[in-house]
Design a protein that fits this description.
By secondary structure, the protein is mostly helical. The chain has helices at 5-11, 28-31, 33-55, 86-121, 125-138, 142-152, 158-167, 171-184, 188-195, 200-208, 213-236, 247-256, 269-293, 295-298; strands at 302-303, 306-307. The chain has a two-stranded antiparallel ribbon with strand order 1-2. Helix 11 (213-236) packs parallel to helix 12. It is elongated and about 75 Å long. It comes from Kutzneria buriramensis. Its main location: membrane.
């Protein structure tokens, strides 16, 4: 009678070998469905911002004889009251919106990382001063400041708008990073790095920042969403140059010429959909990052490895065989 290895181990009082731990999932960021969908849509918008003015069939400022014409084969999104092609305006307007959003996101994220992580790790007067600086910028409103700057300068470019939004939008991200850094600086691996004599900046860049990558990415996406909406709002209320096309400028002219009252839905619907889809893509990126950072969101809807579908009015309960 053959005796298996497991029986011999059980007879000897030894525990059976535990199964090998599952390999760490690679490319977890891209494998998330929400994140992948957001990246694809955002990549399309970036290509549209780069090649949109080149692909536009008409000059967005060129006037024509077809006034307030609905969509046709010649004008896919119809025309304005001056015969301007709305499809060309939408393509050309993508560059300004994406440029302002990314510029403001980069500026705000860099400042948030430098000030937030430094104030959280440095337990001295310098860290307290940086924290106080964050509190000051936290209450500075971005939109009124841009309006004041626009009234002073002879012309307001997208670069100026992006820089002002970025310089006034970093404080909230800095506060979040400071709180995360305060919780990380007492960890064992940080103490081990200090014991080995590593410098302060090496600990920040190689020990703390890798553990804050997801939080930084989430803050960047949130800043881009805010910057895009701010740029469109400023163009809609007429603060930016009305000859510099973006989606807010299209809505500005549609509102000023009573497009809704004239039934010219094609004048504002394409720009509105472009804004909504871009916001959806950025929101999907943010949701995907949250699921990667928060283990509770990753395991939501799963109990002991089994998927549970929620139903309205019922509480999911595992059966006796699954308990």
């Amino acid at each position: 009678m053959a005796i298996s290895t497991v029986d011999l181990q059980a007879a000897a009082g030894e525990a059976a070998p535990s199964p090998r731990p599952a390999k760490r999932q690679k490319f977890r960021f891209i494998s998330n469905g929400k994140t992948l969908a957001g990246l694809i849509i955002l990549g399309f918008y970036v290509l549209l911002a780069i090649f949109g003015p080149i692909l536009s069939p008409y000059d967005p400022d060129a006037r024509g004889s077809d006034l307030i014409s609905p969509p046709t084969s010649a004008h896919w999104f119809g025309t304005t009251h001056l015969g301007q092609d709305i499809f060309s305006q939408v393509l050309s307007g993508a560059r300004g919106v994406v440029y302002v959003g990314l510029l403001a996101g980069v500026v705000a994220t860099v400042l948030a990382v430098i000030i937030g992580v430094s104030s959280g790790y440095l337990a001295n007067s310098g860290g307290e001063a940086l924290s106080a600086l964050s509190n000051v910028f936290l209450v500075i409103p971005a939109l009124p400041l841009i309006i004041i700057v626009a009234s002073i300068l002879p012309s307001v470019s997208n670069t100026v708008i992006g820089l002002v939004i970025g310089l006034t939008s970093w404080a909230w991200g800095a506060r979040v990073l400071r709180a995360q850094t305060l919780s990380l600086r007492g960890r064992d691996y940080v103490d081990a790095a200090k014991a080995t004599g590593e410098s302060t900046w090496r600990i920040i860049f190689f020990e703390l920042l890798p553990n804050l990558t997801a939080v930084i990415a989430s803050g960047f996406v949130g800043t881009v969403i805010f910057a895009v909406l701010s740029e469109i709002t400023l163009a809609f209320i007429g603060v930016s140059d009305p000859t510099d096309w973006n989606w807010g400028t299209i809505l500005f002219w549609a509102q000023s010429q009573q497009a809704l009252a004239q039934g010219a839905w094609w004048w504002f619907v394409p720009a509105g959909l472009a804004i909504a889809i871009l916001g959806t893509a950025l929101s999907l990126l943010n949701f995907g990052i949250d699921e990667i950072v928060n283990p509770r969101l990753r395991s939501a809807g799963r109990i002991k490895g089994k998927t549970v579908r929620m139903r309205i009015g019922f509480t999911p309960v595992l059966g006796k065989d699954n308990r």
